[in-house]
Write a structure and sequence with these properties.
The complex is a heterodimer of chains A (195) and B (464). With 195 residues, chain A is an alpha/beta fold. Helices cover 33% and strands 16% of the residues of chain A. The longest helix of chain A is centred in the middle third of the chain and has 13 residues, at 123-135. Chain B contains 16 helices and 18 strands. In chain B, the strands form 5 sheets. Chain B has a 5-stranded parallel β-sheet with strand order 5-4-3-6-7. A 4-stranded parallel β-sheet of chain B has the order 11-10-9-12. A 4-stranded parallel β-sheet of chain B has the order 16-15-17-18, with helices on one face. In chain B, helix 2 (37-46) crosses helix 5 (145-154). Classes of the chains: A alpha/beta (195), B alpha/beta (464). The interface between A and B is large, with 55 and 70 residues.
Chain lengths: 195, 464
């Protein structure tokens, strides 16, 4: 789970839909587990499989042309429910980066807390990325966390992306927030005493 | 010159991390059975205890059946999840309102009605509709399971300070227009991402004149515009609602609390990162036609056409129309529906049942309609019976089920079948939200009641 992140170069899976909500990423009926494992097999369940359980050949995850550790999605990715199961499903399936022009707040935090890097790019960069992937599904994207730069290797175009210094440090060193908070108990107790 | 949000946020800052998030103290953590088991498992794996067990309240609501709650849950996986919450609460010394406990219900209905949610608090829960509690003047927001674990372990959370937005609604809502319509109207104007990155304060005459139940509905839906949370400054409506509730302060503590709560308002010269204004007179009863809550319109309106849309928008819009079985440009009035759902943390409170009952009184449920009326809690259920609404509803052909989240997200047996249309008072019309293939039309309890008695989409103002 705590996988250190540095530089990732990979092919991409395109999902050019807007407002992909977390109910689509992982439907509610799959939220009944009490562990974090195994959600990847139901990632995008109702788009990926038909009602009779057979794979839907029209959905990108069932298309062998596309693959890789980077999911590229339309704007407002991860809206709706706060279910972290959505981030677990994305990570468990094997994605380490999600690229979009806009993320919903809670889902973005959930990705970061599971060492999946959400990369926000401009709308033109995103559209060009889709074009590049469709033109050549084998083309790669480089995500450089230390320099905070994403590069479309087909066109050579790069863009910088934002991440706060604390979270970047956590991702690069495999640390999570709970480690930090538990080490800061004296500060919490001091705050409580002042009330 | 501070906003209401910043007054509460600032009062809870434990420390500001250099070039990073804020460590914020949390007054209240609510836990339900779906988003907490992995957090408790994480605590066990790290050998940690709950840091402040008395700040934490647990109750199952998502999986609970809406009938026969006195018997074990038939679905073994649901039962295991509900039992896991009970065990975790016992192991870690937390308060737990289990199924059939008179205090049980949907967590966002129970918190306010028991006086657990109070003005000035910071409140979190592994549930995006935690924004509901902002109606009482609290900073309340939904979090993920890793964040639930943070709060269990330290009573703190790391959060980036959101931007602030004030939405002012001038004037008064018209006849048959409710808080739900106000929220659906805002979403239709702002889209599902229009408030992403912001914490919203609702203000203006139309908001001030809402009852507490109406404010809870309004704040509940903040997340559907993408907002981190939504809130209303506490006032006499708030204090009157809280006074005397089980966990609310009493005696001298009450007076002290109210004196503090009166300071919880945005200063006259407070500056928001964004200001938005709406006029209540522009709003009619609303209904959604698509597969996100921002795809809504006045009930007499027409679905938009794709003429003005970009290519990227068109792809998503056409997918949505195909799923719903609707055509761009058409009107929904008069379309037959199959199911009506009254309930959820959005509209499962006593006022919602009063509204629904007032419209169906003296009428009959349409024969082909399946109606699920699900109170938000046992307390709401008791109020329904006290007020005799159960008789009014019964005479009109409606039965009342047992409390829980129910068909809002269909984790229990209450699933809308594939292809069927449901007029639902819940909060999300996403594909498959109410069951695989279900088609949801979000609306107010009045619009739901009008559909239930006529069997078709109907403007409730014609029946009032």
């Amino acid at each position: 789970m705590k996988q250190k992140f540095n530089i990732l170069t990979s092919t991409c899976v395109p999902l050019p839909l807007e407002n992909v909500d977390t109910d689509q990423i992982i439907p509610a009926r799959f939220l009944k587990a009490t562990t974090r494992e195994g959600f990847g097999e139901n990632l995008f369940r109702d788009w990926r499989y038909r009602a009779d359980g057979t794979p839907n050949p029209d959905f990108v995850l069932n298309n062998p042309t596309y693959g890789g550790q980077i999911l590229v999605a339309g704007k407002n990715f991860g809206s709706g429910s706060s279910r972290e199961h959505a981030a677990w499903a994305i990570a468990d399936y094997g994605f380490r980066v999600v690229v979009s022009s806009f993320f919903a707040d809670i889902h973005k935090n959930n990705e970061l807390n599971n060492f999946v890097l959400p990369v926000v790019v401009s709308e033109p960069f995103l559209q060009e990325l889709f074009d590049s992937i469709y033109a050549n599904p084998k083309m790669e994207v480089e995500v450089d966390l230390p320099r905070q730069i994403i590069t479309n290797k087909a066109t050579g175009r790069s863009e910088s992306f934002e991440i706060n210094a604390y979270k970047k440090h956590c991702l690069m060193n495999g640390l999570d927030d709970i480690d930090f908070l538990v080490e800061n108990k004296d500060k919490i107790e001091a705050w409580e005493k002042k009330q | 010159m501070n906003t209401l949000f910043d007054k509460i946020w600032d009062a809870h800052v434990v420390q500001q991390i250099n070039e990073g998030p804020t460590q914020l103290y949390i007054d209240r953590l609510y836990c339900h059975e779906v988003t907490s088991p992995q957090a408790f498992a994480g605590l066990r794996a790290r050998g940690l205890k709950c840091f402040r067990p008395d700040h934490i309240y647990c109750m199952p609501d998502h999986n609970t059946p809406t009938h026969d709650q006195d018997k074990p849950i038939a679905d073994p996986v649901s039962r295991a999840q509900v039992d896991t919450l009970a065990k975790n609460a016992a192991d870690f010394g937390l308060t737990h309102f289990g199924m059939m406990n008179p205090k049980n219900g949907i967590i966002h209905v129970v918190g306010p009605e028991r006086g657990l949610t109070l003005p000035g608090m910071t409140i979190v829960c592994g549930d995006s509709h935690t924004s509901t509690h902002g109606a009482l003047g609290a900073v309340a927001f939904g979090i993920g399971t890793s964040e639930v674990e943070m709060v269990l372990a330290s009573q703190c959370i790391l959060q980036t300070h959101p931007k602030t937005m004030r939405i002012t609604v001038d004037g008064r809502l018209g006849r048959g227009v409710t808080a739900k319509d106000l929220a659906l109207y805002m979403m239709s104007k702002m889209t599902t991402s229009g408030a992403t990155g912001y914490f919203v304060e609702y203000a203006g005459e139309a908001v001030r004149s809402l009852s507490m139940e109406g404010r809870l509905t309004l704040c509940n839906l903040s997340i559907e515009m993408g907002a981190r949370g939504g809130m209303v400054a506490p006032d006499e409506t708030t204090f009157a609602y809280i006074k005397g509730r089980e966990y609310a302060p009493k005696g001298a503590d009450w007076d002290k609390a109210v004196a503090y709560w009166r300071t919880l308002r945005s200063d006259d010269d407070a500056v928001f990162d964004k200001e938005v204004r709406f006029d209540a007179a522009d709003i009619e009863p609303m209904i959604t036609y698509g597969t996100n809550p921002g795809m809504g319109m006045g009930i007499t309106g027409h679905i938009p056409t794709t003429d003005a849309m970009s290519e990227a928008e068109k792809v998503s819009f056409e997918k949505s129309m195909h799923y719903m079985g609707f055509r761009p440009g058409e009107q929904l009035l008069g379309k037959p529906v199959d199911y009506v759902f009254l309930g959820a943390c959005t509209n499962g409170r006593i006022e919602d049942f009063r509204a629904f009952a007032s419209l169906v009184k003296g009428r009959r449920k349409a024969d082909h309609i399946t109606a699920w009326l699900v109170p938000g809690s046992w307390m709401v259920d008791a109020q329904i019976r006290e007020e005799g609404l159960d008789k009014v509803l019964g005479e009109a052909g409606f039965a009342i089920r047992q409390p829980g989240c129910s068909a809002c997200l269909a984790m229990n047996d209450d699933k809308i079948p594939a292809g069927k249309y449901a007029v639902s008072t819940s909060n999300r019309n996403f594909e498959g939200r109410q069951g695989p293939g279900s088609r949801t039309l979000l609306a107010s309890p009045l619009v739901a009641a009008a559909a239930a008695v006529t069997g078709v989409i109907t403007d409730p103002r014609e029946l009032l």
